[in-house]
């Protein structure tokens, strides 16, 4: 008789295996690895998000299939993994962003939003009867002090800061490409082109304006702006 993958230790999220593993957390990380690719990068005055779009259905409306979200005008998120789980964490982060304004009369920092999300995620790794959130997030924005920041979260509740990062099913192809081509002093327009080229690198088919989305936040205008179809077509022509 064959044993289960977790040998019984994956029946509870709060049970460690003898070699110190939490199998349900590892399963959640695997859900992220199977998600659509998400990319984030920053320079001195902006943050850019790019996501791969799969299974475009001409009968389907855009609502419900988003992979880039706004937390506040100065902070955005790109996700890989379970969208429903991401929405729950993002809703909590949005509430915390407004609480910060009410309590301290200032916008919340990117790292504080990240900690809020990761604290929530970590709680679900130690409570019986619940499962970890099967999603990773690239959280980026312009801090109240004017510094662009990007953090990547993990289903375990850990987070790391990045200049440029990719998550999801295409990360193995995207990360080496970004390491080779990304520069911290890149111009905004060059980052848009690099983000588009990176998505093209991970796609299994030809890239079109329907294959990806790009959004950005800049110091000069603190708002999450998504490129239009015409702007994406222009980027593709310039490649």
Describe the protein's topology:
Layout: H1 23-33, E1 38-42, E2 46-52, E3 68-72, E4 75-81, H2 83-104, H3 110-123, E5 135-142, E6 148-153, E7 159-161, E8 164-167, H4 171-181, H5 188-202, E9 212-218, E10 221-226, H6 229-238
Antiparallel strand pairs: 1-2, 1-8, 2-9, 3-4, 4-5, 5-6, 6-7, 9-10
Helix pairs in contact: 2-3, 4-5
- Name of the level-1 CATH class: Alpha Beta
Number of strands: 10
Number of helices: 6
Kindly estimate the percentage of residues that lie in beta strands according to DSSP.
15-25%
CATH architecture: 4-Layer Sandwich
Give the CATH superfamily.
Answer: Aminohydrolase, N-terminal nucleophile (Ntn) domain
Most strands sheet: 5 strands, antiparallel
- Give the averaged pLDDT, no decimals: 92
Element order, helices and strands?
Answer: HEEEEHHEEEEHHEEH
Report the structural category: alpha+beta
Roughly what percent helix?
A: 25-40%
Rg over CA atoms, rounded to whole Å, is: 18 Å
C-alpha geometry? globular
Question: Describe it for me?
Answer:
- With 239 residues, the chain is of the alpha+beta class.
- The chain has helices spanning 23-33, 83-104, 110-123, 171-181, 188-202, 229-238, and strands at 38-42, 46-52, 68-72, 75-81, 135-142, 148-153, 159-161, 164-167, 212-218, 221-226.
- A five-stranded antiparallel beta sheet has the order 8-1-2-9-10. A five-stranded antiparallel beta sheet has the order 3-4-5-6-7.
- A hairpin with a 5-residue loop joins β6 and β7.
- It starts with 22 loop residues before the first helix and ends with a helix.
- The mean pLDDT is 92.
């Amino acid at each position: 008789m064959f044993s289960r993958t977790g040998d019984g230790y994956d029946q509870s999220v709060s049970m460690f295996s003898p070699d110190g593993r939490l199998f349900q957390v590892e399963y959640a990380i695997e859900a992220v690895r199977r998600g659509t690719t998400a990319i984030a990068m920053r320079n001195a005055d902006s943050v850019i998000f790019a996501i791969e779009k799969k299974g475009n259905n001409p009968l389907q409306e855009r609502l419900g299939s988003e992979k880039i979200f706004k937390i506040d005008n100065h902070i955005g998120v790109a996700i890989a993994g379970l969208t429903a789980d991401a929405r729950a964490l993002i809703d909590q982060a949005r509430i915390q962003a407004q609480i910060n304004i009410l309590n301290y009369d200032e916008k919340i920092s990117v790292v504080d939003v990240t900690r809020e999300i990761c604290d929530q995620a970590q709680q679900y790794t130690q409570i019986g009867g619940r499962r970890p959130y099967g999603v990773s997030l690239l959280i980026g924005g312009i801090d109240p002090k004017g510094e662009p920041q990007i953090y990547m979260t993990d289903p375990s509740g850990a987070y790391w800061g990045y200049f440029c990062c990719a998550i999801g099913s295409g990360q193995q192809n995207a990360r080496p490409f970004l390491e080779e081509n990304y520069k911290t002093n890149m111009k905004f327009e060059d980052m848009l082109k690099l983000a588009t080229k990176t998505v093209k690198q991970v796609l299994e088919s030809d890239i079109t304006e329907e294959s990806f989305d790009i959004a950005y936040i800049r110091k000069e205008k603190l708002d999450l702006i998504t490129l239009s179809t015409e702007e994406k077509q222009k980027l593709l022509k310039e490649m």
